[in-house]
Specification:
Number of domains: 2
CATH topology of the largest domain: Tetracycline Repressor, domain 2
Structural class: mainly alpha
Helix content: over 70%
Strand content: under 5%
Order of helices and strands: HHHHHHHHH
């Protein structure tokens, strides 16, 4: 029996296609994109590597799907759509996400940097950012922002994106939290007099 046919260890990622996506994120966060192989994902997910090929067909399709999945997980966990709501502070939500699943963010930054070296990833990275900006824009519109919503959302997200990167790089959590609160205050100013 070949080693690739041997049953894999049980997965800490769950089962099914989502387990493969979560495993891909974990592999890239730990080893970088160069460490992402069908075998490494299969080992992390506790499945045979042919299952990875079956679900995604190509490494690039796996990468694109993992980017979309990671963005969805981050947007939902950080409550980005609700961030503009009066009285809602996303500081706690974002910090909890970073503490609970930092690999989601590390994976996305790895992919962003890799897109500089591999132009074929540029579309997936553009889509990643658009997912975030659109989620924040939805929250802004729901809170009454009507002018330049896309520009405001992109600007606010750029601040959030930079703060998350700083957090992952080791900047003190209290400094990041204070900066996140300031971003939230700016966002609330933009939503008008209802607060």
């Amino acid at each position: 029996m070949k080693s690739s046919d041997a049953p894999a260890a049980p997965s800490k990622y769950g089962t099914g296609k989502e387990a493969l996506l979560r495993a891909a994120v974990g592999v890239v966060a730990a080893k970088g994109l160069r460490g992402l192989t069908y075998r490494s994902v299969a080992e992390a997910a506790g499945v045979n590597n042919t299952l990875v090929a079956h679900h995604f067909g190509s490494r690039d399709a796996l990468i694109a799907a993992a980017l979309d999945w990671a963005a969805d997980q981050s947007i939902n966990a950080s409550q980005l759509r609700e961030a503009a709501a009066v009285g809602h502070s996303f500081t706690k939500s974002l910090l909890e996400l970073l503490l609970a699943e930092p690999e989601l963010q590390v994976f996305q930054y790895e992919m962003i940097l890799e897109a500089r070296r591999r132009p074929e990833l540029a579309g997936a990275v553009t889509s990643l950012y658009e997912n975030y900006v659109n989620a924040l824009a939805e929250g802004l519109m729901a809170s009454g922002v009507t002018e330049n919503v896309s520009v405001v959302a992109r600007t606010l997200f750029a601040a959030l994106d930079g703060l998350v990167l700083q957090y992952l790089a080791g900047v003190d959590r209290a400094l990041i939290a204070a900066s996140l609160e300031e971003v939230h205050e700016v966002l609330l100013l933009r939503t008008g007099p209802q607060h």
